């Protein structure tokens, strides 16, 4: 049995974002608190006892408080059910939560060498002592099984694959500590329960739905996919900033080459958007964008949503 808990569904900044007065943020702050969402991350478990996080968002502390499955075991003075964290990119909203996991509990960080190089180059991550917080490099197209604290297999097999993307925004025009090769900056994951063969895809960032990706995802039982922006230029047209979706490495939901159109007709059973920016009008229930999204068979999850495969 594979359990998946959506810890958060929002993109960087969350909903509402601390300094944002856009319609979505205002509505989430004032009239509709159910719109509030923390930054994207999911937790997975094959045994219901040991858990792995897919990315560690800056909202991790709040997410852990809200998720009983991730609380310390009863009667234990120092304990966490979290055995490891798998990182799919080096963006702040994927790695900053690691800093909330100091205080000496052992776990393993699984990441591509490019992302591990980012952690290594930033001395603040040294608070996670490598003796107790192991760094385990993962390779593109090489399946691995994250391990439990006793060294045994977790029963979960993860296949990382490269998807079109960009390096972390804060590394723009800087020397990447992990080198110049573009592969490894943005990973998708195929996550499989070894005992039952149940599986799903996790792609929180993706700049382009290529034919290769369509072939890979065809027939998938469950897909979490990048839902950052509805339109590529929405942040500019709303006066919120100068970034485009493409510039940040995210394909839009709408449009001819957008995710909804590109991933239609592939017989994907359940399609869930994740990493949704507060500028995205599809967050508003009843909006034309939300209706179009749902009509196309997509969902936007509430934080805390649990799916059992
Ligand atoms: Zn906003």
Secondary structure: elements and pairs:
Layout: E1 3-8, H1 23-30, E2 41-45, E3 51-54, H2 60-65, E4 82-86, H3 92-95, E5 107-111, H4 113-121, E6 133-137, E7 156-162, E8 187-193, E9 199-203, H5 211-217, E10 222-226, H6 234-237, H7 259-262, E11 270-274, H8 288-295, E12 298-299, E13 306-308
Parallel strand pairs: 3-4, 4-5, 5-6, 9-10, 10-11, 11-12
Antiparallel strand pairs: 1-2, 1-13, 2-3, 7-8, 8-9
Topology pattern, helix = H, strand = E: EHEEHEHEHEEEEHEHHEHEE
Helix content: 10-25%
- What is the alpha-carbon Rg in Å? 18 Å
Instruction: Provide a count of the helices.
Output: 8
Give me the count of strands: 13
Spatial strand sequence of the major β-sheet: 6-5-4-3-2-1-13
Ligand list: zinc ion
Overall, the morphology is globular
Could you tell me the mean pLDDT? 95
Ends distance: 6 Å
Uncertain residue segments = none
Structural class call reads alpha/beta
How many strands, what sense, and barrel or not for the largest sheet? 7 strands, mixed
Q: How much of the polypeptide forms β-strand, as a percent range?
A: 15-25%
